[in-house]
Amino acid sequence: MTFAPPRTAVLALGTFAVGTSGYVVAGLLPALTGELGVSETAAAQLVTAFAIAYAVGSPLFAAVTGRWERRTLLVAALVVTAIGNALAALAPGYVTLLLARVVTAIGAAVFTPAASAVAAELTSPERRGRAVALVFGGLTIATILGVPLGSVLSQSVGYQAVFGLVAAFSLLGALAVRMVLPAVPAPPPVRLAERFTVAKDPRVLAMLGATVLGCLAAFSVYTFISPVLSATAGVHGTTVSLLLFVYGAGGALGNVLGGRATDRWGARAPLLVVFAGITVVLAMLPLVATSVAGAAVVLFLWGLATWSINPPIQHRLIELSSQNAGLVLSLNASAIYLGVGLSGLVGGAVLSGGGPLLLPEIAAVLTAIAAAVVVAGWRSRVRQPAPAE
């Protein structure tokens, strides 16, 4: 199959819908705490519920739907995402909203790894990094537009209306995928137990570990960005929303550059450079983000570095297990949201125990560890079976 940008574009549209579904809580945090009457830490558990359901559901539902034709699967996943967001819009309280987030996560858990695998199938190997980057560009655009717009709208119409809009956009994404994407046959059937055999490769485990640590670091700060910026720059409300736009703009550029760098230099060098960059930016955030201008610079650089990670990691995973690309990508999707889920717990604990200024410093340590894991993973070797005598 040849590379078809319109097809990749509709996959990116779908990842924008599921990305906004997953990340929007960060922008809605003030509205959620005010309207639900819960603490910031409790509101952040809506991120944790979504993420853990995603992490568990991604390999499970990938096995259950393994025989489905891919276009049908992608459309169904977006419809489930829409239903979950609609339930969130109608939820009368915190507990029902928590359950709605789980439903939303199931749709997202199915869509994202399947979309990445389809994008890889629809393009040639030398352009695979850019294709995957385009699909994940939908997640980046979710941080550029979805989260900040949700934050702005929630200040005037409330968080429930925002979830309703995300539900409508998810249905629009389902329609676009159905109309533009060709039928894509299902990959060869694989049992659930076999889906985890690829993780026996220590190099794959290293990439998945780096993904967990990177996402844990990023979202420990991003989920609580409102209290962090309040503590550093004294900003609130609309100003925070505008700074989220700046972060997202850096993320969009980083996603593109990450894909191009991976196609040119491979995955190792970009990953090490990016993790080093994130470590420095996060460590300096409390010192530099003391004004709106300083916060804008730091958030742009942070978004640039953070969103450069996905293309090289996914490229490396496909490189390590090209015959099981869908499997390793579904495991990586689980790793992403395991990190996101843990961020709500870890970030909430740090926020309660040490205050918002400690969050970026803990995150910087985590990204430094992630870089060390990447190095260790590259040095690992797969043990070959002994030859028969």
Automatic annotation (TrEMBL):
Signal sequence region: none
Compartment list: Cell membrane
PROSITE patterns recorded: MFS
Keyword flag Nucleus: no
TM stretches of this protein: 42-61, 73-92, 98-119, 131-153, 159-184, 204-225, 237-257, 269-289, 295-313, 325-351, 357-378
Membrane association type: Multi-pass membrane protein
Pfam families: MFS_1 (PF07690)
SUPFAM superfamilies per the UniProt record, alphabetical: MFS general substrate transporter
GO molecular function, a single term: transmembrane transporter activity
InterPro entries the record matches: MFS (IPR011701), MFS_dom (IPR020846), MFS_Efflux_Transporters (IPR050189), MFS_trans_sf (IPR036259)
Domain of life of the organism encoding this protein: Bacteria
GO CC annotations on file: plasma membrane
Entry keyword annotation includes Transmembrane: yes
Protein name as catalogued: Putative MFS family arabinose efflux permease
The species this protein was found in: Amycolatopsis umgeniensis
Lineage of the species this protein comes from: Bacteria, Bacillati, Actinomycetota, Actinomycetes, Pseudonocardiales
